[in-house]
Amino acid sequence: MQDGSQGLREKNRARTTRELHEAAAALVLEQGLSGATVEAIADRAGVSRRTFFNYFASKEDAVLGACPPALPEVELTRFLADETDRFTRTVRLIVAILRSSFVDGATYERRRLLTHRCPELRERLSEHILAVEKLIRTALDRRADAGTATESADSTRALLMLAATVLRFVYSRDPEAMETDPEAAVDSAISIFKNALEDIS
C-alpha cells in the first residue's frame, strides 16, 4: 500500500511540474518573459505561489522546464560497470543526466523557440548545462578512482566537449530523435563520429 501511495504522489508531482512548465511556456509566448510572473504561472496552473516554489526555483526554470540535474544511482552503476569505450559511455551518461534535468514535455524544439524569443533565458540554460557537466566530471572521477588509468584534466575536458558535440549533432540531424528514440539516435551519432575520427587519425 505504501508503494502505491508513493507511486501516486510521484505521478501527481510529475503532473503538476508539467502543468507549471506548460503554463510558464505559454505565458512567455503570449506576453514575453516579463509577463510570465510567478503569480501568473501559478494562477494558470491552478496552484499557489508557495506551491510553485516547491517545484521550480525560479520562473526561468519553469519556462525552460529545467530541474536540478541528477545522477540516478542506476545510471551511475551502469556507467561504472560499462565495458564500452570511454567516449561511448560518456555520451550515454550525458544523455541520462540531461533527461533528468528537464520535465516531460520540455522538448528541445520548445526550448529553442523560447530562447529565441527571450535570449535572456540562455544564461539560465547555460547554468543548467554547467551543472550537468559537473555531475559528469564527478562520475568520470569515480570511474578513474575505481580503475588504474588516470586521465589528465585536458583529456577529460576534451572528452566532455566532444560528447556534447555529439548531442548537438543529434539535435541538428533530427530534432525529434531525442524525444522518440534517444538510444538509437545517440548510438547512430556515436558511430558516425567514431568513423569520422578514424578517417582523420
Task: Please explain how this structure is put together.
- By secondary structure, the protein is mainly α.
- The chain is built from eleven helices and no strands.
- It has helices at residues 2-31, 38-45, 49-52, 59-64, 73-81, 86-101, 108-117, 121-146, 153-173, 177-180, 182-200.
- Helix 6 packs across helix 9 (153-173).
- The longest helix is centred in the first third of the chain and has 30 residues, at 2-31.
**What's the number of domains?**
2
The geometry reads as globular
Number of strands: 0
**Topology as a string of helices (H) and strands (E):** HHHHHHHHHHH
Low-confidence parts? none
For the terminal residues, how far apart are their CA atoms?
A: 58 Å
What is the helix content?
A: over 70%
CA-atom Rg in angstroms: 19 Å
Kindly name the structural category.
mainly alpha
Number of helices: 11
Mean pLDDT: 88
Portion in beta strands: under 5%
Give the biggest beta sheet: none
